[in-house]
């Protein structure tokens, strides 16, 4: 996947992350794209807003996409390296590629996904890094709750 396309798709996920932050939630966004580049679903972390610990950004995007005959060839785009829960979702449903905005503030399960044959594209986007660094600094208890620490 070319970096230009990955960055264009990341803009959708980043807009979701900003929406989540504006709602008082954790600023992580995601989008699921089909093999032909069609946006299937988008969403953001809603753990705080919905009082639902399972409503991660990738989960929200996946749910918004609805049922698909197959997820092979699809791309999950996320502003942050996916946690183990979301990495399991990617693996369970055969999502072929994960584009990650950044993995410096949190190193999730993307190495494991790569070992399972999922294509991983890490962009280390400065805006994604700054958004998470500021959030973690300002909300350490909420962040630690989100990552299970």
What does this 3D model show about the protein?
The protein is built from seven helices and five strands, in the order H-E-E-H-H-E-H-E-H-E-H-H. It is α/β, with parallel strands linked by helices and 149 residues long. A hairpin with a 5-residue loop joins strand 1 and strand 2 (39-44). Helix 6 (126-138) crosses helix 7. The longest helix is centred in the N-terminal third of the chain and has 20 residues, at 3-22.
> Mind summarizing the main beta sheet?
5 strands, mixed
Helical percentage: 40-55%
Low-confidence stretches: none
Which oligomerization state do the chains in this entry correspond to?
A: single chain
Q: Strand percentage, roughly?
A: 15-25%
The spatial strand order of the largest sheet comes to 2-1-3-4-5
- Gyration radius, rounded: 14 Å
Please, what is the average pLDDT?
96
Descriptors:
single chain, 46% helix, alpha/beta, globular, 7 helices, five-stranded mixed beta sheet, 149 residues
Quick structural overview:
The protein has helices spanning 3-22, 47-50, 57-65, 84-92, 110-115, 126-138, 140-146; strands at residues 29-33, 39-44, 75-78, 97-100, 119-122. The protein has 149 residues and is α/β, with parallel strands linked by helices.
Task: Summarize the topology.
Layout: H1 3-22, E1 29-33, E2 39-44, H2 47-50, H3 57-65, E3 75-78, H4 84-92, E4 97-100, H5 110-115, E5 119-122, H6 126-138, H7 140-146
Parallel strand pairs: 3-4, 4-5
Antiparallel strand pairs: 1-2, 1-3
Helix pairs in contact: 6-7
């Amino acid at each position: 996947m070319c970096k230009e396309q990955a960055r264009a798709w990341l803009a959708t996920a980043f807009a979701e992350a900003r929406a989540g932050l504006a709602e008082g939630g954790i600023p992580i966004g995601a989008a699921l794209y089909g093999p032909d580049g069609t946006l299937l679903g988008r969403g953001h972390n809603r753990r705080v807003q919905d009082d639902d610990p399972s409503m991660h950004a990738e989960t929200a995007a996946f749910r918004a996409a609805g049922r698909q005959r197959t997820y092979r060839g699809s791309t999950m785009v996320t502003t942050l390296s996916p946690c183990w829960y979301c990495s399991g979702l990617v693996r369970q449903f055969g999502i072929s590629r994960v584009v990650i905005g950044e993995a410096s503030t949190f190193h999730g399960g993307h190495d494991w996904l790569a070992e399972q044959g999922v294509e991983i594209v890490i962009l280390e986007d400065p805006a994604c890094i700054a958004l998470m660094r500021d959030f973690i600094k300002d909300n350490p208890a909420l962040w630690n709750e989100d990552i299970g620490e």
